[in-house]
């Protein structure tokens, strides 16, 4: 099954906690702190693999977790950092943040990596907090929490050449003749329900990848038919082979079909219309198709490449593939870099408040804010020294004064995340 759009959840590892420990060794009379640092948590990393062409694996596993870092040890031993978790995706995968909708990155090269969730830093052990005033500190930091993100993976197949056209114009048949691919072929519309890839190998040693995209119809760029699901794959192709049916008995007008497909491509992405295009009239083995081809050529511009073929009789296919290879050699490469605005206008904005204070109930207050919440998570509250250090940090941030201004009195309860303490 071909899957090109999935949403997954990734959770990086928490950093290891720093240790509170002291030396208790013979012949070391002064002892001293010896708590080591915690190890870094594991990252979540996406890695591109050109051997994949579907996101099918993610239909069965949607949550990926990394291990936490090891806690610090006695004798100043640091904890081991956790190994990263690699998630293999096909080349051509675009990564979006579900919450913001922003493009995080684009994996377009084999073995390219993208860190989507960074592991938390390890906490410092008490060896870092010794001073002349406090030579035996019982202070250590907890590890930094890992990140949890919801991301969307959107596959856009990377192919040199894309086959476009209305349903049943012969795209799958051409792919089966020009390559070793074996797509499903039948005499009804929408036989092709997912893109098919094939490798064209020429006698001169050159080769290129060709993609058969499911048939577009009028209105595809607005969600009609199957086209909107697969139009994104056209973005990656460097050359378009536009197949037009010359069967005089199909009840359609070739020139109108040609203009309709061009319109849908332009509505989706105007840059696609700038790519080199080769018009491929098909089904030239049917009686009356030659006359229809002559009428079609009269309505087209004279400088357009036209290569009529009959895939059933293999007529013109070899010449078409050789010409496509020549056009490819002259076509400009497509750049997939994430666009960034290098020239940004700077506007001064007052610094946002680092925290907020809400009165939850009578004699009860709640303090919220990313910085103060992170500070709590990284504080080891199992030791009195750690609690006193946390209190000093709250005071230096101005939270103590802000609570007083909000009406807090001694004995009131103050809550930060799931930690509640008495305000004095």
TrEMBL record:
Residues 347-424 form the OCT domain. Gene3D superfamilies: GTP-binding protein OBG, C-terminal domain (3.30.300.350), GTP1/OBG domain (2.70.210.12), P-loop containing nucleotide triphosphate hydrolases (3.40.50.300). It comes from the Bacteria. GO terms for biological process: ribosome biogenesis. It is found in: Cytoplasm. The keyword Oxidoreductase does not apply. Signal peptide: none annotated. This is GTPase Obg.
């Amino acid at each position: 099954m071909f899957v090109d759009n999935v949403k997954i959840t990734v959770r990086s590892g928490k950093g290891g906690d720093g240790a509170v420990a002291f030396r208790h060794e013979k012949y070391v009379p002064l002892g001293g702190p010896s708590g080591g640092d915690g190890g870094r948590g594991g990252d979540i990393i996406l890695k591109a693999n050109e051997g994949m062409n579907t996101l099918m694996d993610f239909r069965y596993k949607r949550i990926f977790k990394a291990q936490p870092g090891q806690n610090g040890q006695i004798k100043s031993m640091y904890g081991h950092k956790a190994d990263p978790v690699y998630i293999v995706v096909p080349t051509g995968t675009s990564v979006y943040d579900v919450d913001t909708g922003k493009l995080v990155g684009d994996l377009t090269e084999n073995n390219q990596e993208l860190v989507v969730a960074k592991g938390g830093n390890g906490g410092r052990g008490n060896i870092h907090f010794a001073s002349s005033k406090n030579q035996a500190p019982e202070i250590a930091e907890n590890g930094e929490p890992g990140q949890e993100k919801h991301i969307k993976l959107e596959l856009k197949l990377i192919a040199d050449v894309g086959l476009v056209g209305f349903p049943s114009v012969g795209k799958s048949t051409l792919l089966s003749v020009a390559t070793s691919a074996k797509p499903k072929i039948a005499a009804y519309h929408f036989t092709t329900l997912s893109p098919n890839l094939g490798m064209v190998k020429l006698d001169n040693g050159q080769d290129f990848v060709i993609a058969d995209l499911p048939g577009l119809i009028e209105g595809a760029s607005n969600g009609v038919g199957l086209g909107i699901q697969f139009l994104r794959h056209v973005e990656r192709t460097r050359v378009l082979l536009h197949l037009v049916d010359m069967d005089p008995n199909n009840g359609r007008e070739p020139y109108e079909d040609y203009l309709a497909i061009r319109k849908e491509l332009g509505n989706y992405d105007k840059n696609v219309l700038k790519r080199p295009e080769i018009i491929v009239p098909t089904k030239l083995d049917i009686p009356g198709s030659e006359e229809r081809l002559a009428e079609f050529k009269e309505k087209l511009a004279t400088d357009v490449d036209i290569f009529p073929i009959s895939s059933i009789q293999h007529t013109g296919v070899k010449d078409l593939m050789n010409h496509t290879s020549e056009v490819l050699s002259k076509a400009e490469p497509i750049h997939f870099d994430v666009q960034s605005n290098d020239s940004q206008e700077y506007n001064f904005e007052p610094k946002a408040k680092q925290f907020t204070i809400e009165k939850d109930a009578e004699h009860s207050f709640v303090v919220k804010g990313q910085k103060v919440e992170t500070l709590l998570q990284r504080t080891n509250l199992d030791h009195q020294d750690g609690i006193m250090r946390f209190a000093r940090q709250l005071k230096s941030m101005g939270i103590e004064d802000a609570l007083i201004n909000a009406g807090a009195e001694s004995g009131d309860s103050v809550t930060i995340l799931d930690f509640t303490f008495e305000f004095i």
